[in-house]
Amino acid sequence: MNSSSRLSNYWVTCADGLETLLQEELQGLGIAQIERFPGRLIFKGTLEQAYRICMWSRLASRVLLPIHTHELERSHDARDVAEELYEGAISFDWSLIFAPQSTFAIRLHIERDIMVNSQFATLRVKDGVVDSFMEAVGRRPSIDTKQPEITLYVLAGKTEHTYCLDLSGDSLHKRGYRRYMTDAPIKENLAAAILQKAKLQQLNPDIILDPMCGSGTFIIESLMLLTDRAPGLVRRFGFNGWNGHNNELWMSIKAEAAERHQQAVTQPLPKFYAFDADWEAVKATKQNIIAAGFENLLDQIQIEERTLSDWPDFELGNKTAFIVTNPPYGERLGEKASNRALYLGLSALLQKHFPNQTAAVIAAAVEQADVMAFSDPQTMRLMNGKLPIYIRLGKIKPATVVKPFLETWQPLQFEPIEGAEDFANRLQKNMQTLKKWAVKDGVFCLRLYDADLPDFNLAIDLYGDRLHVQEYAPPKTIDPEKAKKRFNLGLAAIRAVTGLGRDAIFIKTRARQEGKNQYTKQSTASKRFIVQEGQAKILVNMTDYLDTGLFLDHRQIRLRIAKEARGKHFLNLYSYTSTASLHAALGGAASTTSVDLSNTYLNWSKENFVLNGLTVDHADEQHQFFASDCFEWLKEGHEQYDLIFIDPPTFSNSKKFHGTFDVQRDHLSLLKRAMNRLTTEGTLYFSNNYRGFEMDEEILAFFDVEEITSETIGPDFKRNQKIHRAWKISHPKN
């Protein structure tokens, strides 16, 4: 019988979770009667079939030919596994498999629950192979762990040890094109599996986009699949040094693969887009595409440095698109919370640009994948090395047009609430008055009521379609039971007027806060929602802190900053959740720098940025965040800024900051330091909430100062003109 047609048992290994897809792939190569085990398929076939797997499998990790089995006789308790492995290795004549002048390496896999030092056991297998050679031919091969000519794969089991020849050599996921790496890349065979699961060839899209392309793996694997390029065409294999290797058969398979690729590459291809916020990733993608042999197709691939917030207009028309990406879910991004915000932002962008198109997105946790707005989603769980990953596939839901709550709200008919009639009427009147402005300017978050009536000392803020109700703590002279009853009447009236249910109304009591107490956590419920302000999507927390993460009274100055920031370097001191920085960034700022003493708020800030598709993952990036006391930060640096916003607290102290800050006492020093960092033609906006504040005469004497408070108070704060004061400060023009 010809050696190429002789039947042998072969093992084909794969990453956990790929077994079913791999079985389908092998069946497509004409292989039947496949047994499936976790991480491994076994079939009886020919050498030609084994070679074809090496050449064509996009999913397999290794192709193994079992050579020798060593059955165990000792009881489990008395086992010396390392010596068993040695005995099994020396009991076979390895000179039948490869020549003594060849180099070799051992890959040892140990079944679960077997206790043995893997490094020592591997050494004993090597000793057994070497001693076998010495007994058979009097010469021994050398070890080469980096580029061996022969790799022996050994499975240490509970009843037997199996010694295999690794026909693949290096893992089959190594196609040979990845010359340049980025952080946390996905393995090539996993990328191919995702493309296969998404049925890329059947989709036949006009556009393929990877918006966070890393080193370009998805783009290259798509090119290989669509040009019928065999993944094994240009790499070396572990069977070349094997005595049983049939070179003539292998060369015929290789020639056939080359011919198939040449024929397929002439067919029309989709337009490819490969974007990444990291310029190093953009360079790596282009270099890897060239290394993969697709240099002549570079005109078909648009490779650019772009953030998610900077996508071009794709103008789909009747075209179809496939979006596939491996977001920087851990190693490249950092905080777990920021990761979820990234997926929320990505989902919103996909809904806007690619409604009803197909997408596949990788996540490190299923909770991240769950935020993707896909219809009929499928989920795959795979292992990328030792890391579990989740792939969410599906059709992208079209974006729903969200209108301001007041646009759809109409005055409701309801039974009078005895004791709260005046309050209900005032709230309804306020909402009717604010409706025209909110609809015209697209305002989603605003104050509906601000202690208008003395008996209902509340602040009612609308965030999207939810209410944040703060009760100003009543004086101690008021009977607590009476105050509680009145507050409950107020809540009943709020629900009746707005039509919102209990689950959309969040209640807090606002007493006078001193020092650090104003920033302490009030709850751990963590009811967080996304709201819209101008171009920005902002995360608000309705439960955990006294404030929500978005100061509504500063809306107008944030929108002003958004209009003025284009091309400018922006500095935000006491940045809180950095919403002003976010507006500046979305307005086209050249850079933003946010400084706050609280890591909690800075992490929140980063979530706001990634939610809007802005990158925050590198220290030298366009948008930077510093956990520091603002005085110290100003003193230590020298960078100049074109636009500065400072909104300090009235008073604060902190364990991190030695001493206290008082805005009236300390604003002179603060503003002088900040003006030293302002460019000659720059603008500084200064605001604070201290009602008795007086600007220091020295500031008025040294700089051009204009109070702009009236311009920064929105219609919803018209009754409370002292909610804050604001100034525009610049260097004298002389």
From TrEMBL:
<dbReference type="InterPro" id="IPR002052">
    <property type="entry name" value="DNA_methylase_N6_adenine_CS"/>
</dbReference>
<keyword id="KW-0694">RNA-binding</keyword>
<dbReference type="InterPro" id="IPR019614">
    <property type="entry name" value="SAM-dep_methyl-trfase"/>
</dbReference>
<comment type="function">
    <text>Specifically methylates the guanine in position 2445 (m2G2445) and the guanine in position 2069 (m7G2069) of 23S rRNA.</text>
</comment>
<keyword id="KW-0949">S-adenosyl-L-methionine</keyword>
<comment type="similarity">
    <text>Belongs to the methyltransferase superfamily. RlmKL family.</text>
</comment>
<dbReference type="InterPro" id="IPR004114">
    <property type="entry name" value="THUMP_dom"/>
</dbReference>
<dbReference type="InterPro" id="IPR053943">
    <property type="entry name" value="RlmKL-like_Mtase_CS"/>
</dbReference>
<dbReference type="Pfam" id="PF22020">
    <property type="entry name" value="RlmL_1st"/>
</dbReference>
<dbReference type="Pfam" id="PF01170">
    <property type="entry name" value="UPF0020"/>
</dbReference>
<dbReference type="InterPro" id="IPR017244">
    <property type="entry name" value="23SrRNA_methyltr_KL"/>
</dbReference>
<dbReference type="Pfam" id="PF02926">
    <property type="entry name" value="THUMP"/>
</dbReference>
<dbReference type="GO" id="GO:0052915">
    <property type="term" value="F:23S rRNA (guanine(2445)-N(2))-methyltransferase activity"/>
</dbReference>
<dbReference type="GO" id="GO:0003723">
    <property type="term" value="F:RNA binding"/>
</dbReference>
<dbReference type="Pfam" id="PF10672">
    <property type="entry name" value="Methyltrans_SAM"/>
</dbReference>
<keyword id="KW-0698">rRNA processing</keyword>
<protein>
    <recommendedName>
        <fullName>Ribosomal RNA large subunit methyltransferase K/L</fullName>
        <ecNumber>2.1.1.173</ecNumber>
        <ecNumber>2.1.1.264</ecNumber>
    </recommendedName>
</protein>
<keyword id="KW-0489">Methyltransferase</keyword>
<dbReference type="InterPro" id="IPR029063">
    <property type="entry name" value="SAM-dependent_MTases_sf"/>
</dbReference>
<dbReference type="GO" id="GO:0070043">
    <property type="term" value="F:rRNA (guanine-N7-)-methyltransferase activity"/>
</dbReference>
<dbReference type="InterPro" id="IPR000241">
    <property type="entry name" value="RlmKL-like_Mtase"/>
</dbReference>
<keyword id="KW-0963">Cytoplasm</keyword>
<feature type="domain" description="THUMP">
    <location>
        <begin position="49"/>
        <end position="167"/>
    </location>
</feature>
<dbReference type="GO" id="GO:0005737">
    <property type="term" value="C:cytoplasm"/>
</dbReference>
<dbReference type="InterPro" id="IPR054170">
    <property type="entry name" value="RlmL_1st"/>
</dbReference>
<keyword id="KW-0808">Transferase</keyword>
